[in-house]
């Protein structure tokens, strides 16, 4: 189904929408989410940023359909603009177009997991090796650990997951490269899709709180080699868990 016929289906198929699609509509209708969209110089990039952020925060689940017509209506952008954003996110492995069905949030495969951890080993181990973690940076990392521990004790798994992502975001930020930090946002979004495969295991994220805490302790002692070794082992364990669960 193409063109106007598909548009009619998207516009009129409200009662048949999945809970995930309805949740997505609610998110996109939020004025705060759309803030800065209309006056942004690069609107397709901004639209991609909005969708990427919703994916990386865990608010859009793998397999969720992103209806083109309704999304353009909610964001107030053209189909051309939205499709340019879709192309960017597809290139990042976050969206996929299914023939005659539309655009969906990508559901990770075993190769996605392997590729993501190959990238993380290069990027994050390199950051630990090269970056200068000053007292202010270490204080920020320690604060994230405190947040994660409190969230874990309260059973707030989404907050634990968010703290985990924030910690890794801060590690990359210490390199001082805007390009690398932007690339890390893509990695974090892909990781969130991968982590959704473990949503049936409530201990997955909580088990890594103390691994993160140990990493911060090693950074505080200025033992970069030990911190790098710890993070490499951390990645090995996480990758194995995710592959076993998906396989």
From TrEMBL:
Coiled coil: none annotated. One of its GO terms (molecular function) is DNA binding. Signal peptide: none annotated. Gene3D superfamilies: GntR ligand-binding domain-like (1.20.120.530), Winged helix-like DNA-binding domain superfamily/Winged helix DNA-binding domain (1.10.10.10). The keyword Transcription applies. Keywords: DNA-binding, Transcription, Transcription regulation. This is DNA-binding GntR family transcriptional regulator. It comes from Nesterenkonia xinjiangensis. The lineage of its organism: Bacteria, Bacillati, Actinomycetota, Actinomycetes, Micrococcales.
């Amino acid at each position: 189904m193409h063109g106007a016929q598909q548009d009619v289906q998207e516009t009129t198929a409200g009662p048949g929408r999945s809970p995930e699609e309805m949740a997505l509509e609610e998110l996109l209708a939020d004025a705060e989410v759309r803030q800065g969209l209309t006056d942004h110089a690069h609107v397709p990039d901004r639209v991609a940023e909005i969708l990427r952020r919703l994916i990386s925060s865990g608010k859009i689940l793998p397999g969720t359909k992103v209806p083109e017509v309704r999304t353009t209506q909610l964001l107030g952008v053209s189909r051309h603009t939205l499709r340019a954003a879709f192309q960017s996110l597809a290139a990042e492995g976050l969206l996929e177009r299914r023939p005659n069905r539309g655009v969906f949030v990508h559901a990770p495969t075993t190769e996605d997991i392997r590729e993501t951890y190959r990238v993380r080993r290069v990027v994050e181990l390199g950051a630990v090796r090269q970056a200068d973690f000053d007292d202010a940076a270490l204080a920020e990392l320690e604060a994230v650990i405190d947040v994660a521990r409190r969230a874990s004790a309260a059973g707030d798994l989404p907050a634990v997951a968010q703290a985990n992502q924030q910690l890794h975001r801060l590690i990359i930020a210490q390199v001082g490269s805007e390009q690398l930090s932007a690339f890390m946002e893509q990695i974090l979004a892909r990781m969130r899709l991968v982590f959704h495969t473990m949503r049936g295991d409530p201990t997955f994220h909580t088990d890594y709180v103390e691994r993160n805490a140990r990493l911060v302790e090693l950074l505080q002692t200025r033992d970069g080699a030990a911190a790098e070794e710890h993070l490499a082992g951390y990645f090995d364990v996480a990758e194995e868990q995710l592959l076993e669960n998906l396989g």
